[in-house]
Amino acid sequence: xxxxxxxxxxxxxxxENPTAAREVLAFVWGYWRAVPLRFAGMLxxxxxxxxxxxxxxxxxxxxxxxxxxxxxxxxxxxxxWRTAGWLLGVFGAVFxxxxxxxxxxxxxxxxxxxxxxxxxxxxxxxxxxxxxTNHFAGSTQRKITRGMWAYDSLADTLVIDLGPALGLxxxxxxxxxxxxxxLGLYFGIAVSVFLAASxxxxxxxxxxxxxxxxxxxxxxxxxxxxxxxxxxxxxSFGSEEREDERFHMASQDWRLKSRRAWLRSMDAxxxxxxxxxxxxxxxxxxxxxxxEAATDRVEGAVYVIATYLVVHSYLRNIGWQVRNAQRAINExxxxxxxxxxxxxxxxxxxxxxxxxxxxxxxxxxxxxxxxNQPRPIFEKLCVHVRPGEKLALVxxxxxxxxxxAKLVQRLYDIDAGRIxxxxxxxxxxxxxxxxxxxxxxxxxxxxxxxxxxxxxxxxRPGASRDEVIRAARQAHAHEFIDRLDHGYxxxxxxxxxxxxxxxxxxxxxARAILADAPILVxxxxxxxxxxxxxxxxxxxxxxxxxxxxxxxxxxxxxxxxQADRILVFDDGHIIEEGSHDELVRRAGGRYRExxxxxxxVVDALEEPEVEPEAQDSRExx
Length: 621
Ligand SMILES: Nc1ncnc2c1ncn2[C@@H]1O[C@H](COP(=O)(O)OP(=O)(O)OP(=O)(O)O)[C@@H](O)[C@H]1O
Ligand SMILES: [Mg+2]
Hints:
By secondary structure, this protein is α/β, with parallel strands linked by helices. It has 18 helices and ten strands. The two termini are 30 Å apart.
């Protein structure tokens, strides 16, 4: 996977190689190739446009000569009308051809841009949880949309501006060469020098500054998103000013880097103006020096000036366009990076779907560590969950309980060993089919900013309103939903912020009830509920767990008394295992200690029947 992350913000600013322009162009070409007819039409149109435009200076010069002859009575008025007609005709034809191919281009561009965002979105959605925890949502979203507009700008520059411009320059070099080899030679050389200088300045002088300025821009976006997402925390600590200062550092960096990029752009523009002046001066000089007759001089001068005027706008902009293309390439970089980043947790080729069975879960010698942690959290972890078993995980914060649950869902790939469910290795079946077989009520439920009904039905999109309400009733969510003005149609705010923690949890439980999956994972599913509601929901959860394999993580031990088996985790190791009754009797046991600290079972401890041989860990480590 890509090692690049958005955090810390400064890390990827300077030292990361931007994707080679070649790669970006190949990426864009891939999209054009997918619409061959429209793209071919575009090329044909631009070529025709160039051929027509090359005629304009010659016709302009002809017209001036005919008018001059008319003054001397050396030509008939009809000749002047005919030449003027040709000139106008060519202008008209250029206009028509451009109209046609630009309209065609709009179809092509909108189609490709839609495909581009869709592809970016499709990929990012499938990146692992690890990738997502390492990349700010705000910057990822910006990278995708900015990539889309960068494509637009790059494609326009290449196909509408640079392509025809280069075509015209070649066309004019040939046309001038045919008139006077010296003129053609000078034009060819001068234009080449101009192009080389423009492109070199663009790539070596302007672009590096642009890269830094773009990175600073991404950092500003990330900083904004981070603080705004955590606004609740900011408020609760009254730390708005601290955040302002933090943001000021990011925006200050952006200001300096952007200003430098813009100034360099101005410098490059100034050098180009001087070179253009030399081009025109040289052309006029050659024409005047190498022609004798007054008519030839007039004709030549008009021809050169008309050519210059046609070419000037293209040339003048070529440097800008090369820079624009370069900037667009830099901006597309992130999208190309996304496109070539392989999903970190991947389905094996032709992976079959997971076939839900009775729900046996087996961890065999599992080793797993988060990438940014110095050592693995699990080493040779062995856990076997029987079909239909209610397994509770307890232990201190950070002991690895949620990680265990995440591995069951294959949110991360393990480093060694094997995890299987109903005899099927989780790494060998499709992730989607595996995860639909597991209902999860996560530690911090996140809801979509969609209606409550949609949020609950997310587990089963085809669910009827009655089914949604039934699930909500079981989860004791119906009571509060019913009291809302818009009931099930209420929108819950970004990530569900408009609901209380307990309400959000009840919605998540309703969602899990509706999912009706054979395996259930409850990660602190009731931690935000008051005791009464928890008690009510406990019944619903007990019903829900019936006939299913369930992994229940809880700090409040009251919620796991009924578990068939309890595993006590400590720093990634299982240090105790047994039923509630067994474990509370174990003298000096961790579970007993945990229970003692929670007052509710004081009475259970009053008759300390101690089992002498405490049998510990199931770990083979
Ligand atoms: N995405 C992550 N990247 C790196 N380290 C992580 C990540 N998620 C968890 N950890 C680390 O792994 C360890 C186990 O975390 P885990 O979330 O499994 O703990 P937990 O037992 O569920 O704790 P809690 O009771 O607080 O929920 C912790 O040290 C934690 O800091
Ligand atoms: Mg946890």
